[in-house]
Amino acid sequence: MNKPNKQELIQVSTELGIEIEILDDNSSKDYIKRVINKFKPFKIVGHLAIGANSKTISLEKYEYSYSKYLNSEPALLFFDQEGLDRNTVIVVKDAKLVGYLMENSYGMEYFLSNGNLDYLIAVNWYAIEISESVIPLFTNLDFS
């Protein structure tokens, strides 16, 4: 069995020199609740999905590069809401480095947003869904 996503990302971020922070349980639960209430993602369990008001880009083509299009600001990751890490939020201090962090980690599905909840991105085994609010940052990418 794989170790928890949190443990994997702590280890990999340390090895790569990527600054992250783990929110405490109460802050994590509050943040996750606020994101879910605002964006109302279609699936928060299993293959994570935003659904309505989103566009899709190819996972195969953009899995490790999409984050380079984000602003250089903290990005907050969270996971399947029935999984081991359901109450975990990981803050990656520079959103542009999320793809690099994930490229060096074992595969995981996750949601990504920022502290202001300006957008929501869902990365699952099949695709990357991007909320309409952040699509202008991704104008050079091929949407399905």
Give an account of the 3D structure:
The chain has 144 residues and is α+β, with helices and mostly antiparallel strands. 26% of the residues lie in helices and 20% in strands. It has helices at 5-16, 25-39, 59-62, 98-103, and strands at residues 20-22, 54-58, 75-78, 89-92, 110-114, 121-123, 127-131. A seven-stranded antiparallel sheet has the order 1-4-3-5-6-7-2. Strand 5 and strand 6 (121-123) form a beta hairpin. The longest helix is centred in the first third of the chain and has 15 residues, at 25-39. It is globular. 32% of the residues are buried.
- Please report the total strand number as a whole number: 7
Which structural class should the secondary elements be placed in? Answer: alpha+beta
Shape: globular
The helix/strand series, from N terminus to C terminus, equals: HEHEHEEHEEE
Across the major sheet, the strand order is 1-4-3-5-6-7-2
Distance from N terminus to C terminus (CA atoms, Å) equals: 34 Å
* Largest sheet, strands/sense/barrel: 7 strands, antiparallel
- Low-confidence segments, ≥5 residues, pLDDT <50? none
- Give the % helix: 25-40%
**Counting H and I runs of at least 4 residues, what is the number of helices?**
4
Report the mean per-residue pLDDT as an integer: 94
Over the alpha carbons, how many angstroms does the gyration radius reach? 14 Å
The proportion of strand residues reads 15-25%
